[in-house]
Amino acid sequence: MTDSFTGKVALVTGAGMGIGYALCRALAEAGAVVALNDLNAELADQAADTLNRALGVTRVYAYPADVADVAAMRALVERLALRLGRLDIAVANAGITLFGRFLEYEPENFDRLLAVNLRGSFFTAQAAAREMVSRQINGRIILMSSVAGVQAIGGLGTYGISKAGLRMMARTLAYELGAYHITVNAVAPGATLTERTAQETANYERDWGSITPTRRVAHVEDIAAAVLFLCSAGARHISGQTLIIDGGWTNYSPLPPDY
Ligand SMILES: NC(=O)c1ccc[n+]([C@@H]2O[C@H](COP(=O)([O-])OP(=O)(O)OC[C@H]3O[C@@H](n4cnc5c(N)ncnc54)[C@H](O)[C@@H]3O)[C@@H](O)[C@H]2O)c1
Fold first, then answer.
1. Which residue has the CA at smallest separation from atom 36 of ligand 1?
2. Does the global pTM surpass 0.85?
3. What residues have CB less than 8 Å from 55, skipping those under 6 apart?
């Protein structure tokens, strides 16, 4: 990994584990100072601590909060920019799934899912963009979509709606923030092996790997590599796009046999 992110400050939400944690590791290894957000304060502290010990230098700072709490996120972004001196990159990664078939879906789950995935991402991006604009920083904003926002998957309707919304969010924010030299893109991972997915579904890696053209599920490093590219200097003219990272799955989109 190069050190091309030295001098940059990044915020990653929902980063106590899984994809967000891998993003923090990749950004910090590449030289960035990273604000690691998670709903779970203890997990955020532990994650930052583990990363700093592995790096041998303190470059990751824990910033616990619920992304659905707009006031808390606004205060968090203000605080981190003051303490760390700037904000160059914001990755609105936090997202929840809350499975359920349409005919049985409860409004409480619908509201919470949209509050975290859509509203949380929107206002995290807004707080970050305000900081970037006021500091005249050519920032990068990344939204975490999913292949479930591209293809319908049973039981993932609300989740899919939120993830499709994030693709449109990237387009519209790219349009509005372009004048400030801020790019906004989304990434849409396919089946990705994380602590959560491995625990939720038995044989996750085997079953999803077998129906993916590349015959493997994504590892968190695959998603991190794409995000780092979109945040790199070389991607300065890419905005409003959704990069699908799924080993080719959405080209035909089969589901595992017992799904
Ligand atoms: N894992 C996959 O296969 C996959 C595929 C496509 C998209 N995604 C998306 O990628 C993102 C990360 O997925 P993951 O599987 O690594 O996540 P995960 O379920 O492992 O959660 C990561 C962290 O997010 C935190 N979190 C949950 N709600 C939060 C909130 N309201 N505020 C702040 N933090 C919160 C959790 O405490 C957890 O530590 C999500 O947006 C998810 O929808 C994941």
1. 14
2. yes
3. 28, 29
Q: Is pLDDT above 60 for 1?
A: no
Euclidean distance between CA atoms 8 and 259, whole angstroms: 42
> Does residue 7 register a pLDDT over 50?
yes
Question: What's the CA-to-centroid distance between 172 and ligand 1, angstroms?
Answer: 23
Fold of the CATH domain 9-247 = Rossmann fold (3.40.50)
Residue 143: strand, helix, or coil: strand
Q: What are the residue numbers of the active site?
A: 159, 163
Using a 6 Å cutoff on CB, does residue 19 contact ligand 1?
yes
- Spell out the residues 6+ positions from residue 137 whose beta carbon is closer than 8 angstroms to its own: 86, 87, 88, 131, 182
Nearest CA to ligand 1 atom 26: 14
Find where tokens 């904000």 sit: 87
